[in-house]
Write a structure and sequence with these properties.
By secondary structure, this protein is α+β, with helices and mostly antiparallel strands. The chain is 53% helix and 10% strand. The protein has a single domain, classed as Cytochrome P450 (Cytochrome p450, Orthogonal Bundle). Strand 6 (376-378) and strand 7 (381-383) form a beta hairpin. This is Ent-kaurenoic acid oxidase.
């Protein structure tokens, strides 16, 4: 074969390879739709198997996470809905409040569609994976133990005790990783609420296992040593074993009519919960529910509290306004009162705005995965049955039409502003609203109340880069010192 023929053969081979790489996902996922493929949203599915994950990871790890959706807008226009191949599934990314409302709230057409790795780690009987009717039943059985006013009032004293002792301890520690300590703080709270246990060694070991579990939730499902998913699977097994032993112990106590414990906790509530038909939760439901609440009450609360503290310290005028509100709470308090009450918690409108603005700006969960139960149209575009619909919260929270100057930390933007249900979704929306949202906010409020009154934060590396996966955080975990500034 002569040089020209060889070059032509190589060129031809490369062209065939290019065509295959460009069209294999179309052949697998779009061609079977027949004429319906022409009503799909604009977009592309990237490379075979990998799909759009390479560009997604590149955008988030480059420090420009919003460039991922911006690349679709630049190529295909501002349609608010785009096709892609994400986490191994043909998907439709939805970036408008109206589209997300359809995805999140139409339970006749959409059901949970989380990646298999997430379901495996969070539990097949947890809120994220069970069908709609079972989800409603589980919410009814667990809501009083988590978000009920009586439960929150009962938890308040312990949350406050832990906040006060933690801040005092940190003020004497010197240099520390503020985020790491906050995650331990929120983990200690949630474990006390779950099982009434506070042994420091046990707490530390469980927190380490849950950290490994959480790192695997967004990882590729590769169950081989050295990979995050493999570590997460092993961590889940250890956590399940610990919780199973606690459930077994409690059931034995109830069977033997043992009532020596002085405090109640969530696990008692879950074991005793009975629906209208007299049915109770089985052990797997109880344990998966507890693991899911660990995510809501530990990871999200810890990260949000850190960012709220950082933003307050970065904006002295906002700090002083929030501090004045807390000082007013103390001034109005009867002299015989020694701690916060739920009534006082409801009298902190500006601090609530600080927290809402933090949750908007950070957007702890950037998306929710749903699966189309039948062919469904959004804004005239088809979401085929079996495809995933990704409600992309991050784009909505940064929409300048809803939030002018969206990258600015501005709690006052919430003055006289009540967003529509799907314009602000830090805890999701619809039937899938995070069932632990009120508990999570209570933890953040109580901590910030005491921080504002008596402390300040000194970041030692304020220019530390920010990483965005699996959650938004400083690369150095916010290395800092806590200083006590009050004379109290």
């Amino acid at each position: 074969m002569g040089p020209l023929m060889l070059a032509a053969a190589i060129f031809g081979g490369l062209m065939v390879l290019r065509w295959l790489l460009k069209n294999v996902n179309w052949w697998i996922h779009e061609r079977p739709l027949g004429d319906n493929q022409h009503t799909l949203p604009p977009g592309d599915m990237g490379l075979p198997i990998i799909g759009n994950m390479w560009s997604f990871l590149l955008a988030f790890k480059s420090g420009r996470p919003d460039s991922y959706v911006e690349s679709f807008v630049k190529k295909y226009g501002d349609t608010g809905i785009y096709k892609a191949l994400m986490f191994g599934y043909p998907s439709v990314i939805v970036t408008t409040p109206e589209g997300c409302k359809k995805v999140m709230m139409d339970d006749e057409k959409f059901e949970p569609g989380w990646p298999a790795s997430t379901v495996e780690l969070m539990g097949k009987k947890s809120f994220i994976s069970i069908p709609y009717e079972e989800h409603k039943r589980l919410r009814r059985l667990t809501s009083a133990s988590i978000n009920g006013m009586d439960a929150l009032s009962f938890y308040l004293t312990k949350i406050e005790d832990i906040a006060i002792s933690s801040l005092d301890k940190w003020s004497k520690m010197g240099e520390m990783e503020f985020l790491t300590e906050l995650r331990r703080f929120t983990f200690r709270i949630i474990m006390h609420i779950f099982v009434g246990s506070e042994g420091d060694a046990v707490m530390h070991n469980l927190e380490k296992e849950y950290t490994a579990l959480n790192l695997g939730v967004r990882a590729m499902q590769i169950n081989l040593p050295g990979f995050a998913y493999h570590k997460a699977i092993n961590a889940r097994k250890k956590l399940v074993a610990v919780f199973q032993s606690v459930v077994d112990q409690r059931r034995n106590e109830m069977k033997e009519n043992v009532h020596y414990r002085k405090t109640r906790d969530m696990i008692d509530g879950l074991i005793n919960a009975t629906d209208e038909n007299g049915n109770k939760l089985d052990d797997e439901q109880i344990i998966d529910t507890m693991l899911m609440y660990l995510n809501a009450g530990h990871e999200s609360s810890g990260h949000t509290t850190m960012w709220a503290t950082v933003y307050l310290q970065q904006h002295p005028e906002i700090f002083q306004r929030a501090k004045a509100e807390q000082e007013e709470i103390i001034r109005k308090r009867p002299p015989t009162q020694t701690g916060l009450t739920m009534k006082e918690i409801r009298q902190m409108p500006y601090l609530s705005k600080v927290i809402d603005e933090t949750m908007r700006l950070v957007t702890f969960s950037l998306t929710v995965f749903r699966e189309a139960k039948k062919d469904t149209y959004i804004n005239g575009y088809l979401v085929p049955k079996g495809w995933r619909a990704l409600a992309w919260f991050r784009t909505i929270h940064y929409d300048p039409k809803i939030y002018p100057n969206p990258m600015e930390f501005n709690p006052s933007r919430w003055d006289n502003f009540i967003p529509k249900a799907t314009e602000f979704m830090p805890f999701g929306a619809g039937s899938r609203l995070c069932p632990g949202n009120e508990l999570a906010k209570l933890e953040i409020i109580v901590f910030l109340h005491h921080f504002l009154l008596d402390y300040k934060l000194e970041r030692l590396n304020p220019k530390s880069p920010t990483m965005y996966l699996p959650h938004t955080r400083p690369v150095d975990n916010c290395v800092a010192r806590i200083h006590k500034v009050s004379n109290a």
